[in-house]
Amino acid sequence: MTAVDSLAQTSSPAPTYSYADLADRALAAPVALVVTVTDAIRVEPERAPGLKTGHARLFIEATANRLIRGPNDIPPLIRYLVDVPLDARGKVPKLKKGTMLLLARTVPGRPGELQLIAQDAQLPLTPETEQRVRAILTEALRADAPPPVTGITSAFHVAGAIPGEGETQIFLSTRDNRPISLNVLRRPGQEPSWSVALTEVVDEAAQPPERDTLLWYRLACGLPRSLPDAAVADLDPSAAEAARADYGFVLERLGQCSRSRPVRRS
Q1: Cβ of 191: how many Cβ atoms within 10 Å?
Q2: Taking the domains of the chain in order of start, what are their residue ranges?
Q3: Alpha-carbon distances, residue 123 vs 61, 79, 112, 126, 265 (angstroms)
Q4: 99-158 pLDDT, tens digit each
Q5: What's the pLDDT score for residue 265?
Q6: The domain defined by 2-140 carries CATH number 2.40.50.120
Q7: pTM of the model
Q8: In 96-173, alpha helices (H)
């Protein structure tokens, strides 16, 4: 390994991470830690298996600044590997003295060594990034945190007494088998309304989730793009059509699960 010459380093724009990008990484990371890079040593390409073209693998030494999530015995000096893209001139971006937010795991039997949860889980620290990661992890640790959605089990639709009136309920399957259901209500001359319930009983005061919250992420990023045929198999054709339309309405209101980068696990 060779030390990266500061003259051979360049500053590059900080990559952008959407809420979904951050949630993908933060929820999978046992450790979230803010560090300051003290040294960056380039690993020779022949000693960096799996390194992508146009990237450099760096051995990083850093000091731990503050722990957001993880064991309390994280030592003050941290080491880890990170792959970084080279700039247009083939230079390594400047990392030394930079402050980073790491989403990582500890390495058993190697105190002070971390492994990033994904190849791009070294995040240039900004107040917004730290605030978002903290908010995601705080929500995830709550007893009533919404679980990951794994599919749709069933749906039913009840038409109202007058044309244009109706209600649809859609029941979701989750990783830990806790209930989540979607409810869509239509009344003539009014905008359709929808809500989500995290209990078996639908609360009349339930509301749609706010964007860029954990519940929004679970739904927008976990729901299938269409209502499965099996979910409406027991409905008559008109009720099934109404349920599909209402499910499409929910997806439209949730908006896209905007990911700017796929998760490449380390």
Answers
A1: 6
A2: 2-140, 149-254
A3: 15, 15, 19, 9, 15
A4: 999 999 999 999 999 999 999 999 999 999 999 999 999 999 999 999 999 999 999 999
A5: 63
A6: yes
A7: 0.88
A8: 127-140
